[in-house]
Amino acid sequence: MQLSKRRRIRIDSFFLFFFFLRVPIDRYCTSDLNMLSTLRSCALRRPLHKAPASILQHTSTVAPRNLRSKAYSTKMQTYHAVSTYRAWRHSLPPGSTVGVVPTMGALHAGHISLARAAATENTHVVVTIFLNPAQFAPTEDLASYPKTLEKDLEKLEELNASLVDKVPGRVAAVFVPTVAEMYPAGIPLVRDQQVGTFVEVIPLSAKLEGGTRPHFFRGVATVCTKLFNITQPNTVYFGQKDVQQTVIIRRLLTDLHFDIKLRVIATEREEDGLAMSSRNVYLNGKRREVAITIYRALKAAEELYESGEKRAEVLLQRAREVVESAGDAVKLDYVSLNEPQLLEEVEVVEKGKEVILSAAMWVMPKGEGEGTVRLIDNLILS
Ligand SMILES: Nc1ncnc2c1ncn2[C@@H]1O[C@H](COP(=O)(O)OP(=O)(O)OP(=O)(O)O)[C@@H](O)[C@H]1O
Ligand SMILES: CC(C)(CO)[C@@H](O)C(=O)[O-]
Ligand code: BAL
Fold first, then answer.
1. Which end of the chain is more exposed for a tag (fewer CB within 10 A), N or C?
2. How far apart are the CA of 104 and the centre of ligand 3, in A?
3. Does 32 have pLDDT greater than 60?
4. List 111, 124, 215, 257, catalytic entry
5. Which residues are 336's β-sheet partners?
6. Is 244 in the pocket of ligand 1 (CB under 6 A)?
7. Do 196 and 184 form a contact (C-beta atoms < 8 A)?
8. Is residue 378 lining ligand 1, measured as CB closer than 6 Å?
């Protein structure tokens, strides 16, 4: 049957109306994605002819620009269960990119710089906060590790508020799972008692930090594998402060065929150069003063390198001397020069090749009830 001309025009304008309605929504999807995530926005991206009426109603409620910034400040979601996180992750519109920042909490400016980098490069940032028992030996500080969840969430909200409009992403979700969720079979700290699935990156995990903390990278690789499976990132963000961890994660991503990019973000430091670290809260007064020794030692070796010395043993000796000069307030675990792929020790720094100069040092107890505090740091010589 032929439609009358007037009726055809009315039908065409009806479709045109919805076509134009969709344009701002699509633009919205690329710039203000966090807001959309709370609206289960994948539905909005469905071809309009398939969209149910209620979804179309939604579109008109998100449209006013002046409401968007308000919505931002209320939408960062915290998920404790894998299932609810997954529901959120599946709800993201096509074209979303997710940058994941794994942490153990007690957030400081170093963590925030990772999240900021992720916000610059993704539409959605997910920060995970999980104090992972599997990377602690029974003798280590799992029980006393700082726990500041409320403040952590505030800091992430502050970051969101500080991000300018042209930064595409916001911290949209914080994943804070329970130990039972992450380790359904339980996770005793004694390795021989552990049951379940574990991931090891051999032989990288036995080097440097692994020499003193043989359990450590098995715990890290295992929990990161779980977190990557759950959070489904496009890119993961790790700090250079834990440089061996970044080498191990790169290897893990390659070997397990994760379709995930790795970004390594520069170390944030205190004014005097001390690398920021959650464990720095253990350091007060005199202990905080001597903590800077690790950075001074690395800098002294770097200076010597820059003056032309390329022999590893001479450079490392320089660093050792600086630590020794601080007396028995500190104790060096190792200082080492390694190439960045397999962490093989380097004897002479070759022209044009980057090497990792890294160290671990304990700050010794001073008063009653104080424990030793282990610090790590590194510089890249290039
Ligand atoms: N100063 C820093 N600058 C940049 N990234 C950092 C810094 N400190 C930690 N990170 C990164 O943040 C991520 C989470 O680290 P984590 O939660 O263990 O904090 P941490 O400060 O390293 O704690 P810890 O004191 O236990 O070593 C890691 O990728 C780590 O490398
Ligand atoms: C990567 C990590 C969050 C795994 O627990 C931890 O090792 C850390 O914070 O560096
Ligand atoms: N960022 C390192 C975590 C740990 O020492 O357990």
1. N
2. 8
3. no
4. 111
5. 358
6. no
7. yes
8. no
DSSP letters for 139-167? TSSTTTS---HHHHHHHHHHHHHHS-TTS
Residue environment code for 3-34, b if the CB has 16+ CB neighbours within 10 A, otherwise e: eeeeeeeeeeeeeeeeeeebeebeebbeebbb
Which has the minimum average pLDDT: 50-54, 195-199, 360-364, 376-380? Answer: 50-54
DSSP line for 205-250: GGSTHHHH-TTHHHHHHHHHHHHHHHH--SEEEEEGGGHHHHHHHH
Q: Check if the interface score ipTM surpasses 0.90.
A: yes
Show me where the domains of the chain are located.
5-66, 76-265, 278-381
What is the distance between the alpha carbons of residues 97 and 66, in angstroms, rounded to a whole number? 25
Residue nearest to atom 7 of ligand 2 (CA): 220
Model confidence pTM above 0.90: no
Distances (CA, A) of 353 to 50, 333, 338, 343: 57, 26, 11, 13
Q: Residue 112 in 3-state DSSP? A: helix
Crossing angle of helices 216-231 and 82-90, in 10° steps, is: 50
CA 107/CA 278 separation, integer angstroms: 7
At 224-242, the pLDDT tens digits run 999 999 999 999 999 999 9
Tell me the CB-side half-sphere exposure of residue 316, using CA atoms within 13 A.
21
Architecture of domain 278-381: 2-Layer Sandwich (3.30)
Nearest one of 120, 213, 108 to 160, comparing CA atoms: 120
Is the distance from the beta carbon of residue 231 to the nearest atom of ligand 1 less than 6 Å?
A: no
Active site residue 111: yes
Which residue's C-alpha comes closest to atom 8 of ligand 2?
A: 103
Condensed to tens digits (0 to 9), the pLDDT of residues 158-213 reads 999 999 999 999 999 999 999 999 999 999 999 999 999 999 999 999 999 999 99
Kindly report the backbone phi and psi dihedral angles of residue 154, in degrees, each rounded to the nearest multiple of 5, phi listed first: -60, -45
Question: What is the second-level CATH architecture of the domain 76-265?
Answer: 3-Layer(aba) Sandwich (3.40)
Q: What confidence score (pLDDT) does residue 42 get?
A: 25
